[in-house]
Write a structure and sequence with these properties.
4 helices; 412 residues; eleven-stranded parallel sheet; 20-stranded parallel sheet; single chain; 2 domains
Length: 412
């Protein structure tokens, strides 16, 4: 009897699973009259396991879209075929906001949203694949801040995304963990790709070009999540970042000078390797402390454990821009060296150099130029009075973080 009951339970479980699969629906939304209302309705009515399939064409939307249902795929016919235009948006919110788990967004474009392009908040296993987010009027401070914008999320996959014209960061991941950004293109944004106050990120096989700054790895004070760490930036093309900074005043990225390649600020255990950097007129790589005043006892404002190695450097540093560029070039001269460390340390490190895991390491090919500016910041004494250009003094290495594996990408 017990065996029969067990078999019955197993059959019931299998039957329930098949019923659940069979119940999944495809909500097809074609362009044409009433398309905006039909698309909004499809996202509201979607159930776990469903697909909202958006047909080819241009969808003129005056209100932002949202999805709060788990296990839903939203798919278009391709980023140049399915275009969600928010040029007539009446509010200032996102184009599309996702607040649910195990969501896939793929194969469509979002244009001219008043706020951020595509945002997820508090999501687990969120995938952005083969998307285009663009402000079609080009760089403008009135554009939305972020193109693709997962925040407070976990298991984030950004793959094959293109973003143009964001007034803050084209691809931005903030206060999140377990992140992969790959095979994407960011151009004509203030920051091309930015990882901020986040843990465990792999950024690779991307192109960051014609932004103000190519790739930024930041940690900022006064945020719920702090202490960003374990970031790998590798196999990227970071070239010709030459767009004047158009961020609204007061934004932290407003400090980024035109012509910045890769910038690491106040983060820990960051590995920058096998990238190609060329045509970045302020500096190819900058390692820096947070430069502003702050009131946050939990915040550590200096970078720790940064390892830069195996990169390829072309022309750069020939026209340092803005206050940051002038500060660097006043000490280093022009052209600015390929790799710049501001040299800011905390008071204990002035008297006794940091432990091995917190040091700055540079291991590059012969001919690569480097400077430690040994600057003063946060009213601290400098630990030296002259810049150090001897790259050999920074040889060494750090254990590389493990590759990030995501459940939706075949990982554990």
């Amino acid at each position: 009897m017990r065996t029969l009951l067990l078999r019955a339970a197993m059959l019931a479980s299998v039957s329930l699973a098949f019923t659940s699969i069979a119940a999944a629906e495809i909500h097809l939304v074609d362009a044409g009259e009433g398309a905006a209302e039909r698309l909004t309705e499809a996202l509201i009515l979607a159930q776990p396991g469903d697909t909202v399939r958006i047909g080819a064409g241009r969808f003129e939307l005056t209100e932002g879209l949202s999805l709060d249902v788990d296990d839903v795929t939203v798919a278009g016919a391709g980023p140049d075929q399915t275009i969600l235009s928010f040029k007539g948006q009446t509010g200032s919110g996102e184009g599309l906001l996702v607040t649910s788990d195990r969501v896939v967004l793929q194969d469509f474009a979002v244009e001219d949203s008043k706020g951020d392009g595509v945002k997820s908040k508090g999501s687990d296993q969120i995938t952005f694949r083969n998307l285009r987010v663009e402000w079609t009027n080009g760089p403008n401070e009135k554009n939305g801040a972020y193109g693709v914008y997962p925040v407070s999320s976990k298991n984030v996959l950004i793959d094959g995304v293109t973003v143009r014209g964001a007034a803050d960061a084209g691809i931005y991941v903030g206060q999140s963990e377990y992140i992969v950004v790959r095979n994407s293109r960011a151009e004509y944004n203030v920051a091309g790709i930015e990882i901020e106050n986040s843990f465990k990120a792999d950024v690779y096989n991307n192109v960051a070009t014609h932004n103000t700054g190519g790739i930024l790895i930041f940690d900022l004070p006064n945020l719920p999540v702090q202490g960003g760490h374990d970031i790998r930036v590798f196999d990227n093309q970071v070239v010709d970042n030459d767009t004047p900074n158009f961020a609204p005043k007061g934004n932290i990225v407003a400090i980024v000078p035109k012509g910045m390649g890769i910038m690491v600020m106040a983060n820990r255990n960051v590995h920058v390797f096998n990238n190609t950097l060329s045509g970045n007129a302020t500096a190819h790589v900058l390692i820096a402390a947070y430069p502003n005043d702050y009131d946050d006892d939990a915040y550590m404002f200096v970078p720790r454990g940064v390892y830069v190695h195996g990169n390829t450097y072309g022309d750069g540093g020939n026209a340092p821009d803005g206050e940051v560029g002038k500060t660097i070039s006043d000490v280093s001269g022009t052209p600015v060296p390929d790799i710049v460390w501001d040299g800011v340390t905390t008071i204990p490190e002035y008297f006794s150099w940091t432990s091995a895991e917190n040091q700055i390491y540079v291991d590059e090919a012969e001919g690569t130029t480097f400077v430690n500016l040994k600057m003063i910041s946060q009213l601290l004494l400098p630990w030296g009075w002259w810049p150090d250009t001897d790259i050999s003094g920074y040889k060494g290495s750090l254990p590389e973080p493990s590759p990030v594996k995501l459940p939706q990408d075949g990982g554990a």
